[in-house]
Amino acid sequence: MTDFLQAAKALLGDAHVLTTDLAAYATDWRGKFTGLPLAVLRPADTAQVTATVRLCAAHGVPIVPQGGNTGMCGGATPDGSGAQVVLSLGRLNRVRSIDPLNNTLTVEAGCVLQTIQALAAEHDRLFPLSLGSEGSCQIGGNIATNAGGVQVLRYGNTRDLVLGLEVVLADGQVLNLLRALRKDNTGYDLKHLFIGSEGTLGLITAAVLKLFPAPHAQAVAFAAFQTPQQALQLLGLMRGHLGDRFTAFELISQASVAMVRQYFPATPTLFEAKHPWHVLMQASDAAGQDALDAAFQAALEAALERGIIDDVVVATSEAQAHELWAVRENISEAQQHDGSNIKHDIAVPVSSVSSFIDEVLPMLHTAYEGVRPIVYGHLGDGNLHFNVSRPPGWTIPGWQLETDRVNKVVLDVVARYQGSFSAEHGLGQLKNHEMLLYKAPLEVDVMRRVKQALDPQNLMNPGKLLP
Ligand code: FAD
Ligand code: MLT
Ligand code: ZN
Description:
By secondary structure, the chain is α+β, with helices and mostly antiparallel strands. 36% of the residues lie in helices and 20% in strands. The chain contains 17 helices and 18 strands. The strands form 4 sheets. It has a 7-stranded antiparallel beta sheet with strand order 15-12-14-13-17-18-16, with helices on both faces. Helix 8 packs antiparallel against helix 13 (353-367), helix 9 (254-263) packs across helix 12 and helix 13 runs antiparallel to helix 15 (403-416). The longest helix is centred in the middle third of the chain and has 17 residues, at 289-305. It is globular and about 70 Å long. It binds flavin-adenine dinucleotide, D-malate (MLT) and zinc ion.
């Protein structure tokens, strides 16, 4: 491997072939997976990515692409063999062009999501992808995982926000799909193969993103109620009043709020009484604030009158809106402080969310006395983070040993609802084995054929996504 590393240094410069102090690249955000990279390679542009991929192919060195390393499934973490390189995309962070009339932005893969959002705003446009990790995740990682986030209800997943891609294939060729077209039916739409492929088919080096009119008005509220069924009624009511202006509908259980308050003591108490369930809602509009406020207020009054919600806090300033959102966004980090949980990212049809919750919670409580389900997520998309924290008295390693059993309780019910065992985080090395349990063999077989066609040497993120 000395030859390989020397050639990599000649290609990228010594400073961009790291072989020491690799801890930050070797462990995932949750601290669940730790690998042993041969080296971390940091190419500067598409040409260097191409040359690096060719070098790896010539030496049979497997490549683990890494963006912001905020993924939830260990997809960007190498294995423990010491043979895989991490290819970090962070230096590919240029904005190639912006076309406000076409409402498109062309950026390189290493651009941080928050930077892209800010750039769109400077041009009075919105790039609507919005995640708790937006300060560190990169657009290449977002595309590779087909990230969801909190505005899918209105704008769709990352897949819906990408018009074109540039991809370096496993043999080093550059597949240029960087078209900025809203209509193009000229054969298979190849970009969709790479969106959500978690680095297993090629390296995304640039993308054309869709922009939208910037919202100039915004309304945010935190509501409290008794049952998941009421959440569905509220969703219907809010959408009825607000239509497309309704952009976010996030479910938050009382246990999730309590965990945030435990680890973020500055979190304000929103209601005097305790309520088992809450939602955080947002509406936004490109037109005036007064009209939006009136429609938002009318919808909430109707919900209170009909007894759908018990109570509601409406943000009266941008600062308060941030404060309400912080309760939601801090759940992931609070769980990190609490010690690792058994994590789920499931989807069922929106109409089934309430019966799904009502079915699974008692099963978990019967299986494990004192178990602490931390249920929250993007209810408007039927996507819940149905995480299961250990009951008092259990050690973290002891609880981790229960993963298969807990997964079976939750995911068998998901399967009965014809749902998904990974709605937005992807599979990485955390969920790939579930493929064999919950996907049709033919579907897995077709995926293997695609992988074989595009990466015959199995050098692109091997061991991830496909079991
Ligand atoms: P990484 O973690 O670096 O990589 C993720 C996967 O993509 C890996 O398989 C990697 O090999 C591959 N990859 C990365 N870059 C490339 C590239 N250029 N070409 C090919 N493959 C590549 N996710 C959601 O969907 N919705 C949420 O609401 C959400 N909220 C989050 C909140 C917090 C606090 C945190 C920590 C994470 C959250 N995530 C969420 C998960 C995560 O942020 C997303 O999956 C994000 O899209 C990952 O981007 P990244 O740049 O960090 O990718
Ligand atoms: C979220 O919605 O907060 C994220 O997907 C991260 C998580 O599941 O904790
Ligand atoms: Zn999420």
